[in-house]
C-alpha cells in the first residue's frame, strides 16, 4: 500500500479516534498536495457538525428563552427534532468519511 494513500485514508478514518488532530497534523507534515487535499476535506467534514451543533444549540436556547414562553411542549418538540436531526447529520457525515477513506484505499 502506498504511504500517501494510507495517510489520506487515515484522515477520514480519524473521525473515530481523533477528528481534529490527525487531519491538522497530516496537513502540516505532508508535502504531497493530494494528501493535503484529503486532510483538508476530512477536517472540514469533522468541523461541520460541531459548528452546526453550536449554532442550532444557540438558536434553540434563544427560542426557548425568548420565543416560546408558556409553551413548554413546543420547546420540547424543538429539542427532540434538534437531537434527531443532529444525530442523523452526524451519522451521515461519519458514513461519508468511511466511504471516502475506502475510496482512497482502492
UniProtKB/TrEMBL annotation:
- Taxonomically, the superkingdom here is Bacteria
Q: Where in the cell is it found?
A: Membrane
Its topology with respect to the membrane? Answer: Multi-pass membrane protein
Q: Which UniProt keywords apply?
A: Membrane, Transmembrane, Transmembrane helix
Pfam families (UniProt xref):
MamF_MmsF
- InterPro entries found in the cross-reference section: MamF_MmsF (IPR019109)
Task: From the record, give the transmembrane residue ranges.
Answer: 12-30, 42-64, 76-99
Q: Mind telling me what this protein is named? A: DUF4870 domain-containing protein
Q: Which organism is it from?
A: Lysinibacillus odysseyi 34hs-1 = NBRC 100172
- Lineage from the top down? Bacteria, Bacillati, Bacillota, Bacilli, Bacillales
Amino acid at each position: 500500500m502506498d504511504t500517501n494513500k494510507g495517510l489520506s485514508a487515515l484522515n477520514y478514518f480519524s473521525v473515530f479516534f481523533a477528528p481534529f488532530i490527525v487531519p491538522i497534523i497530516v496537513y502540516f507534515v505532508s508535502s504531497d498536495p493530494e494528501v493535503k487535499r484529503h486532510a483538508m476535506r476530512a477536517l472540514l467534514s469533522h468541523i461541520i457538525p460541531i459548528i452546526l451543533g453550536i449554532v442550532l444549540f444557540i438558536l434553540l436556547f434563544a427560542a426557548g428563552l425568548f420565543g416560546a414562553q408558556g409553551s413548554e411542549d413546543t420547546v420540547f418538540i424543538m429539542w427532540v427534532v434538534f437531537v434527531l436531526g443532529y444525530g442523523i447529520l452526524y451519522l451521515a457525515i461519519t458514513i461519508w468519511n468511511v466511504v471516502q477513506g475506502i475510496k482512497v484505499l482502492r
